[in-house]
Amino acid sequence: MASIAVILLLSYLAGSIPGSVWMGQLLYGVDVRKHGSLNAGATNVFRVLGWKAGVLSTIVDLGKGLLAAGVIASIRIDELPSGFAFWQVESVVRLLAGIAAIVGHMLPVWARFRGGKGVNTAAGVLFALTPKTMWIVIGVFALVLFSSRYVSLASIVAAIMFPATIAIRMFVFDIEALDRSLLLFGSIFALAILYAHRSNIQRLIAGTENKVQKFRLAHGMRGRGEL
Predict the structure, then answer these.
(1) pTM for the complete prediction?
(2) Which of 39, 40, 105, 20 is nearest to 66 (CA)?
(3) d(Cα 94, Cα 107) in Å, to the nearest integer?
(4) Using alpha carbons only, how large is the chain's radius of gyration in Å?
(5) How far apart are the first and last CA of the chain?
(6) Mean pLDDT of successive 10-residue segments in the chain (227 residues)?
């Protein structure tokens, strides 16, 4: 069990790296949690600081998920436990590492447990596990975003689409390379993302959620002289 404990700890610490917060502070001396939506996610960085800081924050958040599920999960100090029924042990360990990274992103120890909503970090985890499924999900995300102009709605639909796509690929197209644990944990990821977006869902229902006005390089509040 030592391997599992080390993997979970390191994945949580990696996920806790508050890329959005540190990026704003290092580049511009701005704490994004005090502006815009008050969220420590990449979307708010785009809104507050513009596209350069937003892109860098997105890369960091994606990288945390990829690092946890793709690299940290391979650490071996002792034998991995057995007893995962019909699930592949390696897949379960990588998923557990990914969940720890997402928890770290949402409750980062390095930023007083005030983090983001975990969408980009979850995307990085799932890219490490099943890139083909993720390309499909990204296509759905882009379609919803450009048609609705709601980033939150696109994120919510994409989160739901991941386990749905896994199920279709497994049970309709009979792709045996996909482990069933992906379906269960993909559903858990989706529920976690939905919970993190509960305030956005309320605003979407009320019609008060912020829309993307124009699809162009964002200069943010700082670029408009509002900070």
Answers:
(1) 0.81
(2) 105
(3) 20
(4) 18
(5) 49
(6) 91 94 90 86 87 92 96 88 67 89 92 85 89 92 92 90 91 76 82 86 91 73 75
